[in-house]
Write a structure and sequence with these properties.
The chain is mainly alpha-helical. It contains 4 helices and no strands.
């Protein structure tokens, strides 16, 4: 029987993927440069990828941090999903987790949700807003961390 705490964490990653995909979908290429010189949208997205690379190293027990330079926007979007998938694949395996689930949640995962919210706010400020959504009714399922997400069920 699957570990329910790991399953909850995997559902959380699927939520990150869903919300992140919604925030990134339809953003113009120019959005990558929006923000300040120290914190552009591309730099924030690269940081999210770094958070999930770090989460995987925490889970494996060989903590390592990397500050990645942003890739071109579409490549960075691909990296976002790739890092989520690598971490989700590890959680889906029977490999041991070297730290507590709580540490994984309170550190990299919660931080990524904050940054996805930043990107959503930045889209509005940049003049390319996205629609709001009732996320409680969204079709989110553990393991679905790729670009292909279910369409919104209730936008406003």
């Amino acid at each position: 029987m699957p570990d329910p705490t790991r399953q909850l964490l995997r559902h959380t990653l699927a939520t990150v993927a869903y919300r992140g995909s919604k925030t990134l979908r339809g953003a113009p290429e120019s959005f990558a440069q929006y923000g300040t010189p120290e914190k552009s949208a591309a730099q924030i997205l690269a940081h999210i990828g770094d958070l999930y690379d770090w989460a995987l190293t925490l889970a494996i027990g060989k903590q390592a941090w990397n500050n990645s330079a942003p890739l071109p926007w579409n490549d960075e979007v691909t990296r976002f999903h790739k890092t989520l998938k690598a971490f989700d694949d590890y959680l889906a395996s029977d490999q041991p987790i070297a730290c507590t689930i709580e540490k994984l949640f309170q550190g990299p995962i919660a931080d990524s949700l904050t940054h996805i919210g930043q990107l959503a706010m930045m889209r509005r400020l940049a003049g390319c807003p996205m629609k709001g959504e009732n996320y409680a009714v969204a079709a989110i399922a553990a393991g679905n961390v790729g670009r292909d997400q279910a369409p919104p069920r209730k936008e406003f």
